[in-house]
Amino acid sequence: MPIWREFLTNKDDGSLFYTGGEAYALDLDHQTQLKDFKHELAETFQCSADAMAIKYFLPGNRKTLITISKDKDLKRMVNFFFFKFWSLSSRTTVSEAAIPSDVPVDLMQTDDAIVLDEPIETTPLGACPFSNEEKHRRAAIQWENIITGVDQRFNTFAEFREALHKYSIAHGFTYNIRKMTAIA
């Protein structure tokens, strides 16, 4: 039995919300197994867990759905949203002239330089009160090489910003992104 919801986009901030039903909250952590998660969803929505497909959006990406098909995928989702939660509590300074994340690539000006000069505070991996430090360190290891060098290309500014944020968590540094305008 499919559970249909209509997802709508908030025009002010780009966040998603849905209509057509009640909202449910489930506890997820790094120990949650996919079969247990599916079982709890099946009980909540009175449907079969066998035919269930679970998908989610990455933080900051409202276009690509990620499928959860094994325990590792579920743990990765928990990590993405765990770090997103902690990064929201940090101080972020971005110039108002920055390119919005929803701007298509072909509208971006490639002549604009990006300067990293002021800090964005990030939460150290061990500072989270309910963290399992070793598991978070393993998650951060996945992000250590997400930025490979000068010739690396990103499709959008949002993709670059997300990669830089993950890279900064993995390497424990702070940064600031601001758009530079050409001086004529």
UniProtKB/TrEMBL annotation:
Coiled coil where?
Answer: none
Residue ranges constituting the PB1 domain according to the UniProt record: 11-93
Q: What protein name does the entry list?
A: PB1 domain-containing protein
Q: Which organism is it from?
A: Sesamum calycinum
Q: Which domain of life is it from?
A: Eukaryota
Lineage start: Eukaryota, Viridiplantae, Streptophyta, Embryophyta, Tracheophyta
* Pfam families cross-referenced by the UniProt entry: DBD_Tnp_Mut (PF03108), PB1 (PF00564)
